[in-house]
Amino acid sequence: MRIIYLALYSLLYNQLAWAYDGVSWVVSLGRWDSWRRAALPFVRGERVLEVGFGTGALLPNLQSGRRRVYGLEPSAAMQRISARKLGQGGRLLPRLQGTAQQLPFADRAFDTIVTTFPASFILDKNAHREFARCLRTGGRLIVVDVTLTSQHPLLRFLFHLLFPSPPGAPEQLDNAFQAAKLKKSEHLIGEGALRPLVVVAEKQGRA
Fold first, then answer.
1. Pick the CATH number of 2-203 from 3.40.50.150, 2.60.40.2550, 3.10.560.10, 2.40.50.140
2. Distance between CA atoms of 67 and 50, rounded to whole angstroms?
3. DSSP letter string over 62-89?
4. Segment 47-88, tens digit of pLDDT
5. What is the dihedral sign for C-alpha 100, 98, 82, 48?
6. Which of 119, 115, 114, 200 is nearest to 164 (CA)?
7. What is the Cα–Cα distance from 138 to 165, expressed in whole angstroms?
8. What ranges do the domains of the chain cover?
């Protein structure tokens, strides 16, 4: 099942990128954008990076006051869609094509790094080492995902069908945080059985 999911995911980020927003709306019952925006209250500082920005929907929301927002996305198809959407809104945001495992930014460049509903890179220790390298001391990585709080068998079946994760994913994520010296806290947002989970992981160590 996960192999099929990964194949569909790849198509949705490349050949079928035009359908991404619609598919996300359907699987979330129209709540995808509000789930994504759950990251906003946790953003700190004036320099912010969104990793894996997809169609660019969150990038304008991250802008506030003097804040400088940057985006990183590996998919060329998503880059084209986001460029068109941001251009229509008159937004000029620096966007680079690249991967989380090799961030094209200087050490301690950002106060906050955001990633919402991330791909498999979020379990890669190399990605977290890059996050830690590019964060200032005390800076934070914000990860938004969706979680199911109900134990109802049918709901759990549907949830794992729509949002599958590899075995041991929570432990892998914790290990990646620890290896990068990122101290995490978890925040369950809103009401209902299906809602966003915001993980905030702060960079430890001396300034």
1. 3.40.50.150
2. 13
3. H--TT-EEEEE-S-HHHHHHHHHHHHHT
4. 999 999 999 999 999 988 789 999 999 999 999 999 998 888
5. positive
6. 119
7. 29
8. 2-203
